[in-house]
Amino acid sequence: MLRRLRLRITLLAALLTGVVLAAVLSVACRIAGEQYTTGRLDAFDTAVNQLQYRWEQFNQLEDSWLQQLEAENGVLIQLEENGHPLLYSKRRSTADQTLLQAVRDTAEQHYTVNLSSRPLAEPNTQQPNFSLTAPDGQVYRCTLRLNLSANRWTTLLAAQNLTVEQTYLNHLGLLFALVGVGAWLLICLICWFVAGRAVRPVAEAMEQQQQFICAAGHELRTPLTVIRANAGAALQHPGKADKYLHIIDSEGKRMGTLVDELLLLSAGASARHRLQLETVAPDTFLLDFAESIEPLAVQAGRKIQVELPDKEVPLLQCDSYRLRQLLTILVDNALRFAPEHTTIRLQLVQASGRVQFRVIDQGPGVALPHRKRIFDRFYSEPSDGIRPHCGLGLAVARELALLHGGRIWVQDTPGGGATFCVELPSKKRGVASCTGTESGRWQ
User: Fold this and answer.
1) Strands 75-81 and 84-85, how do they pair?
2) With left for phi above 0 and alpha for psi between -120 and 50, is residue 244 left, alpha or beta?
3) How confident is the model at residue 298, as a pLDDT?
4) How confident is the model at residue 389 (pLDDT cuts 50, 70, 90)?
5) Residue 433 burial class via C-beta count within 10 angstroms: exposed 0-12, middle 13-18, buried 19 and up
6) pLDDT class for 369, splitting at 50, 70, 90?
């Protein structure tokens, strides 16, 4: 499916780009062709004007100069005086003389004149040039210039073969076509690469979604199995129903917590709009939280210690319920790994205008290879055999930190253990102006 999606994106992008490319190259080819044609036409008119001026001024033309003029401009010239060709024109080959005679006949028809006798006036035309198609199919650009004076009248006929011009234009069009095809193929490759980069996040998201569904189904199946087993046992042994109902209630609560965590993770960034933001004093909040969590620590055989800074800490704009949930996850994680009769320190720190909550334990710590993965969904360290868990707690903690525009990471505790740090923006910076950062910024 993703391959077809990538192919469709590539074809659509290549098609749209190809249309634009074809239009641009067509315009460029036309402009280049017109410039070339205009240049040859200007050269033709310049050569004829130069020849006419020199003939009128000096009344004498050298054969070598005429030959050079014809060679440089690709033209044939017919010079007549009082209706008779000059000697230079009589020396031409039979084919050239035939062609020039056809030019002369066409000029007489085009301008309605008789070049064998003295015209009464010079032909009046806005287009001094005309075209001639020879019997062999070649096309010529032709012109007629008459000069009527008191003693004589002269006729100048010139023809320029357009075969070279047409060949050049054909080659130019073929060149632009080849360039267009090559550029389009290159664009197709680029579009295929870019489409692959664009589809890659979709593929990763689909893979993560599949893994998420599989892992969630596995985690939900465990409490469901326990609930069904104990419900069956309660039906078979009514006298021991209270024991089985207690287990069912415990597993039901566990499943409820698991479902809440799954819903939060699936909501992602959209959960930001559901935060109940309020102004919170971090020091007071941390003291209240420590008081509420202390019975759980005592039950687990650990102590809770709060460490507050000497200076005043700026206020927070946060969802106190979600922040309490985040710290509860970190404390629960510390209670799982910290040795008995040790102290879990809850530390409040101000750093660069931001507020940090730190949960410090004296447990085994987090090995460096696992630090980038412990915040992933359903991940648990291979060596974790202390207490079973589904691997969602730290993923939820990261999501909650990101929703508040903060970040979370883990670092070593001096003397051994792990320190989980949650950094949140203070109220004067504003939650709305902050964006979540990845928890992978390790210190």
Assistant:
1) antiparallel
2) alpha
3) 87
4) very low
5) exposed
6) confident
Structure tokens at 57: 């001024």
Q: Which residue has the higher pLDDT, 127 or 172?
A: 172
DSSP string, 243-277: HHHHHHHHHHHHHHHHHHHHHHHHHGGGGGGG---
Task: Provide the pLDDT confidence category of residue 125 given band limits of 50, 70 and 90.
Answer: low
Q: Which DSSP string corresponds to 425-436?
A: EBTTT-STT---
Q: For residue 135, what are its two tokens?
A: 């019997």
DSSP designation for 240:
G
Residue 422 above 90 pLDDT? yes
Which residues have CB under 8 Å from 148's CB, separation 6+? 118, 119, 121, 122
Close Cβ partners of 365 (under 8 Å, ≥ 6 residues apart): 412, 413, 416, 417, 418
- Grouping H, G, I as helix, E, B as strand and the rest as coil, residue 68 is helix
Element (H or E) spanning 327, and its range? helix 320-337
Helix (H, G, I), strand (E, B) or coil at 155: strand
pLDDT value at residue 349? 92
**Locate tokens 């946060």: which residue?**
318
Give the CA angle between residues 243, 249, 252 to the nearest 5°.
140
Rounded to an integer, what distance in angstroms lies between the CA atom of residue 111 and that of residue 119? 11
In angstroms, what CA-CA distances link 313 with 154, 174, 283, 286, 316? Answer: 106, 74, 7, 12, 9
Tell me the per-residue pLDDT of 273-311, one tens digit each, with 9 for 90 and over.
Answer: 577 889 999 999 999 999 988 888 888 889 999 999 988
Nearest residue to 424 via CA among 335, 338, 314: 314
Structure pTM?
0.50
Question: Residue 434's pLDDT band (boundaries 50, 70, 90)?
Answer: very low
Q: Which residues pair with 51 in a beta bridge?
A: none
- Residue in 41, 66, 39, 63 with CA at minimum distance from that of residue 52: 66
What DSSP string describes 71-114?
HHHTEEEEEEETTEE-HHHHTS-HHHHHHHHHHHHHHHHHHT--
